[in-house]
Amino acid sequence: MGTVVLVTGVARHLGARFAAELRRRPGVDLVVGVDVQPPRPPLRALAEPDGPAAPYRFHQLDLRRPAVARVIAEHGVDTVVHLAVSATGLGSTNRSSVKESNVIGTMQLLGACQKAPGVRRLVVKSTTGVYGSAPRDPAVFTERTQPRNLPGGGFAKDAVEVEGYVRGFARRRPDVGVTVLRFANIVGPAADTPLTDYFGLPVLPTVLGYDPRLQFVHEDDVIEVLCRAAFAAEPGTVNTGTFNVAGEGVLLLSQCARRLGRPTLPLLLPAISWFAGLARQTRLVDVSPEQLRLLTHGRVVDTTRLRETFGYRPAFTTPEAFTDFAAAQSPGLLPPGRLAAVTDGVAALLGPERPGHGRAAPESPARPHRPRS
């Protein structure tokens, strides 16, 4: 018999895309999607791939309730991919509700998996936010690096708690292959996250005196990594354990702004904190305290294990992923081409930089490489 996959969070763009891709993969007998709300019509259409595809069943349920155990038993699920851990909630901006959905929902799901003898594989979407962002952080985080300051709240703290429960599940069910994927900030033409909302502002508020290093991962690479984690590992690779997932290279926040054609507005930290609170209250954009720390201190992770152990090299580098995201945005107030030409000219006058780990990308935007279908 083929694989029966349960996917949580299918009412979001990433979950709908992943469910559709799974249905195209050979060896999949059934894909079961669950979420607290039914997908919107465009996402329902996205989950219906062209051509031959495995059957799909959707169940509207709240992961905080024990009903997910019934769904797992009813369909004989053997693989669970948990994508419902998110920075925002569907239909709710209440932070406590989002936290309950992330943490309590994960606990209920893991409890259901523990009681289901047929479950053999668990994949959990996490975030590099578990490392935090602080002024004395190491230049690069590996999967074994212990953060100096654990996230004090928000989505990153939820992810830390979720990972703790997942480790406990792995100890209780050693027969289940468990994979935790710590994704960098996800971007792409259709990406919808608090950080992409921030980059959509006509003017980007920044912290005066700081130009943080940022990493991104393209949504196409996210889908491919999730698919590879959901099946048996390819020969010579291991797809269980914890992996950082990010495109190679880094971008400075100022480089991101220039690629978007967005002017920046440097503010003192108290002023930008006030702006972030006002933006959340008015629902203009959700600039959480953890995101504000990222936009102050930045964060870079090492992806050696992803390439050498997991066996996957992202098709998009960090600059290429952001370029593809920027191409789908509305034009900024400043012409990116002219800005890039000026900054490239200045860089040429200053001379070539010495190569080094974590060096920022050149200003001239590269054309993104499309993954093979």
Per-chain topology:
Layout: E1 3-8, H1 13-24, E2 28-35, H2 41-46, E3 56-60, H3 67-75, E4 79-82, H4 95-115, E5 121-127, H5 154-172, E6 177-183, E7 185-187, H6 194-199, E8 204-207, E9 213-214, E10 216-218, H7 219-230, E11 241-245, E12 251-252, H8 253-260, E13 264-267, H9 269-281, H10 289-297, H11 304-310, H12 318-327, H13 336-350
Parallel strand pairs: 1-2, 1-4, 2-3, 4-5, 5-6, 6-11, 7-10, 8-13
Antiparallel strand pairs: 9-12
Helix pairs in contact: 1-7, 3-4, 4-5
How would you explain this protein's 3D organization?
There is one protein chain. By secondary structure, the protein is α/β, with parallel strands linked by helices. Helices cover 39% and strands 16% of the residues. It contains 13 helices and 13 strands. The protein has helices spanning 13-24, 41-46, 67-75, 95-115, 154-172, 194-199, 219-230, 253-260, 269-281, 289-297, 304-310, 318-327, 336-350; strands at 3-8, 28-35, 56-60, 79-82, 121-127, 177-183, 185-187, 204-207, 213-214, 216-218, 241-245, 251-252, 264-267. Strands 3-2-1-4-5-6-11 form a 7-stranded parallel sheet, with helices on both faces. A two-stranded parallel sheet has the order 7-10. Strands 8-13 form a two-stranded parallel ribbon. β4, α4 and β5 (121-127) form a beta-alpha-beta unit. The protein is globular. It starts with a strand and ends in a 23-residue tail after the last helix. 44% of the residues are buried. Mean pLDDT is 87; it is low at 353-358 and 364-369.
